[in-house]
Amino acid sequence: MKALFAALVCIACAGSVQAQQINRAGTAETAKKQKKAPKFKFKGGETFDFGEVKEGPEAEHVFEFTNTGKEPLIIQTASASCGCTTPEFSKAPVLPGKKGTITVRYSTQGRPGPFNKSVYISSNAVTAGERMELMIKGTVKAAPES
Q: Is this prediction's pTM over 0.85?
């Protein structure tokens, strides 16, 4: 009985060692893919502060980025945290070493006071499966009453 139990323990240990080796190989392959994968590098960062803006006209900022990866970067979607914010981006792939832009517009009309809005980007960049977040913030100065 003890011999049977010992044999089962040995088999279980051998199986877990093999699983660890497979996992290491998978990790190495993933790391190799990540080195080649497209990557965002935003000029000026991923957050933009408008400071104080007047109520009425749209506030607009263009996020400029470079693809620092080794494969074309493709943005699949860009969605905003609310209907008052509108993202716009090029559907064309951004080749390695080339620049691209994401324009974000915020409707200030009827929204005096501070704001902090997010735009979520889905792409084939290193963070695939996760959304990248760009942020805009500022304060809308109320329009003078007429």
A: no
Tell me how far apart the alpha carbons of residues 97 and 58 are, in angstroms, rounded to a whole number.
31
Question: By three-state DSSP, how is residue 51 classified?
Answer: strand
H-only helix segments in the chain: 2-36
Closest CA to 68 of 38, 42, 44: 38
- For the stretch 59-92, pLDDT in tens is 999 999 999 999 999 999 999 999 999 999 989 9
Cα angle at 39 between 88 and 74, to 5 degrees? 45
Q: Are both 29 and 100 inside the same structural domain?
A: no
∠ Cα 96 71 32 (to 5°): 125
Find the angle CA(80)-CA(129)-CA(82) to the nearest 5 degrees.
Answer: 10
Q: What is the pLDDT of residue 20?
A: 45
Do 21 and 53 reside in the same domain of the chain? no
